[in-house]
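Notes from the 1:1 (GR / supervisor)

We went over the backlog. Supervisor wanted to see one worked example end to end before approving the batch request, so GR pasted a single chain during the call. The sequence is below; no edits were made to it. Supervisor asked that the structure be written out right there so they could see what the output format looks like.
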Amino acid sequence: MLRRVAPAFIGLAAVLATTWGGGVAAHAATSRPTVYEIPITGPVDPFVANMVDRGFDRAQRAHAAAVLVRIDTPGGLDSSMRSIVKKIHSSSVPVICWVGPSGARAASAGTFILIGCPLASMAPGTNVGAAHPVGITGNLLSEKVTNDAVAYIRSLAEQRGRNAGWAERAVRDSVSISAVEAKRIHVIDFIAGSTSAVFAAADGRRVATSQGPKTLAVRDAEVSTVHLSVGEWILHQLDDPNIAFVFFVLGIAGLIFEILHPGINIPGVIGLILLVCSLMILSVLPVNVGALVLLAAAFIFFVLDLKVHAHGVATFAGILCLVFGGLFLFDGAVPNAQVSRPLIFVIAIAIGAFFAFAVRKGIEARHQPVRTGAVRIVGHVAEVTDTLAPTGHVRVRGEVWSARLVTPAVVAPVGAKVQVLEVRGLVLDVELLDAAGRVDEPTPRSEVT
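Structure output shown during the call:
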C-alpha cells in the first residue's frame, strides 16, 4: 500500500513544484524594476534639499533599483548643494544623474551635483558649468572661497574619474560647455535624450554605492517621481527674481505708508511680512547691493517730494531709481536671475503714482480740521422739537439732542431755529435765531404762550 501511495505523492509534489516554480518564474519575468526620480529644478535651496533627502530615504526603504536625479537648475545655496552631494555619496541605492530634458542646464551648484554623481549623463541641447561662487553682492567671491570651491569640485571629479582640470576651470573661469563637449572631455559618462534612453544606456553598468559597486538593472524600469510637499512647493516657487523684486518694493512701500499714517497698522504688518519674505528669497539669489541702495533711495525721493512739494521732480527721480534698481538688482552673469523689464516699469510707475496722489491726499487729510463726532455740529442750525425754557430738545443733522439756551431769559418755542455754539457732553449750548438767521433779542417769558 505504501509503495503505491508514495509514487502518487511524489508525482503530485513534482506537479505542484513545477506549477509554483513556473508561476514564480513568470512573475519574475514580468516584474519591472523601480527607479525613484528626484527632480532638482529651479534654484537649489533648503526645500529642494529636503525633498532630495526624503526621496533617497524612500528609495532605500523600497530597495529601488536606482535613483535618477534629474537636474535643471541655475544654481543656488552652497549649503543645500553640499547636502545633496552628501546624500548621493551615502546612498546604498545606485544613483544616476541626468541633465534633461533638452534645454535644461546644470549651472553653478548643479555642476557640483552632476560631477559628484556616480553615473552622469546629459540630454542633447543641455549645458553644464558657470560654477564660480557668487555672493549676495552679485560679485565673484574672494580667492579664499574660490579656492575652497575648486578643491571641492576637484575632489568630486577625481573620485568619479572625471575631468578635474575642466571642473576647476568651471569654477575659476565660469566656463560652460554643451553635452557633446562634456562627453568628449570626460565630464559625463554618456548622452541620452530621455529617461528611457538613460535606463537603456545605464543598464548593466557597475556603479559605486556606499555599500560597494553594484550592477544596474534598470532597463524598462518603472519610474516613481518624488515631489515637493505643498508647503515646500509654495516656498520654492517664491525663489524667483520677479517675486523678490515685487515683495521688496511693496514691503518698503507698506512700511513707509505706515510711518506716514500711524495707527492704520495693516499696511505696516503686510509690508513687514513682504520685506522679510523678499530677504529670504534674496538670500539664495546673486543680489547687487548697489541696486538695493537705489531701490531704497527711490522711496527717499518719494517722501521728499511729499514734504518739500518739489512739483514732481523728486517723484520722477524716485521712479528712475526704481527702474535702474530693478534692472541691476541681480548679477547678469547668472542665467535667468533677472527681473522682467515690463514688470519693472509697471511697478515703478504704479508706486510713483501711489505716492504722488494717494499718499499725498492722505497727508493733506491729516491736516484738515476734525469733522467727526459731536464737534461736527458746532455752528450748525438746529430746530427746536421741545420748547427750550431754557432747556429742551433740538434736532440737528437728523439727530435729537438735549439743548440749553445760553440766554436764560429767552424761550425758544417748538419749530424755532437755534444755532449750536458748543457741545458739553450730551448737551448742546444754543442761541435763538430770528427769521433772518440772526441772533434774536431776549424775549420775556411772560410773552411766550
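Supervisor's comment: Residues 1-30, 136-141, 442-449 have pLDDT under 50 and may be disordered.
Batch request approved.
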